Amino acid sequence: MRAPGQGGSVTAAPDRVPVTGAWPAGDPAGRRQWVRSSLRLEAGGTLDFELAYETWGTLNADGSNAVLVQHALTGDSHAAGEAGPGHPTAGWWDGLIGPGRALDTDELFVVAPNVLGGCQGSTGPASLAPDAKPWGSRFPSITVRDQVHSEQTLANALGVDRWALVLGGSMGGMRALEWAVSLPARVASLLVLAAPAASSADQIAWAAPQLHAIRSDPGWRGGDYYDAPPGAGPHAGLGVARRIAHVTYRGEAELVQRFGRTPQGDGRFAVESYLDHHAAKLVRRFDANSYLLLTESMNSHDVGRDRGGVGAALSRVSARTIVAGVDSDRLYPLYQARDLAAGIPGAGEAAVISSPYGHDSFLIETPQVAALIKALLG
Ligand SMILES: CC(=O)SCCNC(=O)CCNC(=O)[C@H](O)C(C)(C)COP(=O)(O)OP(=O)(O)OC[C@H]1O[C@@H](n2cnc3c(N)ncnc32)[C@H](O)[C@@H]1OP(=O)(O)O
Ligand SMILES: N[C@@H](CCO)C(=O)O
Fold first, then answer.
1. Is the Cβ–Cβ distance between 91 and 78 less than 8 Å?
2. CA–CA dist 82, 122 (Å, integer)
3. Fewer CB within 10 A of the terminal residue: the chain, N end or C end?
4. Binding residues for substrate, per the UniProt record (predicted)?
5. Per-residue pLDDT for 10 more than 60?
6. Confidence of residue 230 (pLDDT cuts 50, 70, 90)
């Protein structure tokens, strides 16, 4: 089990005052912190939860220099920093966060939480429920709004009334947008990368075989696999899900040119070997139930739900906004970024990240993303 043992319970309790503290034993990197509270879920009931987060820089006296960085589906709070104990890779936006970088930590206070429902320190299906057993199949459904609600607790605990900037890509872009729609007074500027106002049928369609792959793995055991012997969990299903997803994260022309048709010595096409590699890497670091839960939270993403539609919801945004899409993104196509930008007051036309790398370009095209950040903060 990867998450800490505090878990949560679905109860009818009212929201509680958040409690913060240093991360307890078990954080090998030694820099994560946590906030603990409870929230009313959009689907009903209340969840006691913890959010893990990391920060860089210092909050200034008037609290005006805080930036909220939102990770994508399989990301985590380690947005910046070198690889080291507990973090085999450098932060996923290390090129953007640090002294002298676009998110200049000599000037800014940068905060990156692990998403509610995740498996990298925040409460999720692998966490312990009040009965001291993993939540597993009992973990409630979570929406993007619930995730943002939980992050409000973090902002309150940190003393951040208004973020100077909220930004993220993909699932992180959904949460960034939801912040600006649900709490417009608390978001001064907004950068949404490769994310829509509402998940489309095409995106839900790509998710469907991924969900089935995990659930049809006998090792999934209806979601209650945490006491299975090592290696007996739903690794094969999660690996298939990642292979499907990873194809959608990369550019078609990129794969064609990069891998060609020549089989490797072991008989696999190079692109098959590449997908196998990414599947194996994810299986080692990610919980299958979190993958299901977060995928379904993305499927349900629709800023217009119960708000009179997408147009009415977007008209609430008061942040200085840039929306950007990637010209080779086949999962979140550019037209969605254009539609989203058109709906947000003052956003102007969507920016275009030009790249062969597809959806993942928001993680790869550092200078182009840096320019967008500077345009907002400058
Ligand atoms: C914010 C967040 O959301 S997510 C956190 C970071 N994201 C992830 O971890 C998602 C998974 N990874 C990725 O999507 C990508 O690796 C990115 C976006 C992080 C970086 O993209 P790129 O730099 O273009 O990496 P690329 O997709 O080429 O993968 C490189 C890996 O494939 C391996 N690889 C390349 N070709 C082959 C092949 N034919 N066979 C096997 N492995 C191969 C490389 O050895 C390298 O392995 P390593 O990452 O273990 O060192
Ligand atoms: N590579 C990213 C893509 C999802 O947007 C991830 O795994 O989170």
1. yes
2. 22
3. C
4. 242, 360
5. no
6. confident
Question: Which helix (H) or strand (E) covers residue 49, if one does?
Answer: strand 46-56
Mean pLDDT of the chain: 92
Please give the ipTM for the structure prediction.
0.94
For 142, residues 6+ apart whose C-beta sits below 8 A from its C-beta are: 41, 47, 116, 117, 293, 294, 297
CB of 274 sitting under 6 A from ligand 1 = yes
Closest ligand, as measured to the CA of 364: 1
Give the position, in ligand 2's atom list, of the atom nearest the Cα of 172.
5
Coil, strand, or helix at residue 272? helix
Q: Do domains 33-199+301-377 and 204-296 have the same CATH topology?
A: no
Q: Please check if 224 is assigned to a binding site.
A: no
Cα 74 to chain centroid, rounded: 7
Q: How far apart are CA 86 and CA 165, in angstroms?
A: 28
Report the separation in Å between the CA atom of 169 and the middle of ligand 2, taken as the mean of its atom positions: 9
First-to-last alpha carbon distance for the chain, in angstroms, is 43
Q: Residues 104-118: pLDDT tens digits?
A: 999 999 999 999 999
Q: What is the dihedral of CA 308, 313, 316, 319, to 10 degrees?
A: 180
Contacts of 310 (CB under 8 A, 6+ apart): 197, 198, 302, 303, 304, 343
Question: Ligand 1: which of 249, 258, 269, 277 to mutate, most ligand atoms within 8 Å of CB?
Answer: 277
Residue 222 DSSP code: G
Q: At what angle do helices 235-249 and 288-299 cross, to 10 degrees?
A: 40
To which CATH superfamily is domain 33-199+301-377 assigned? Answer: Alpha/Beta hydrolase fold, catalytic domain (3.40.50.1820)
Helix (H) or strand (E) holding 362: helix 361-364
Domain residues of the chain, as ranges?
33-199+301-377, 204-296
Percent of the chain at pLDDT > 70 equals: 91
- pLDDT category, 29, cuts 50, 70, 90? low
Instruction: Match 């509680």 to its residue by tokens.
Output: 16
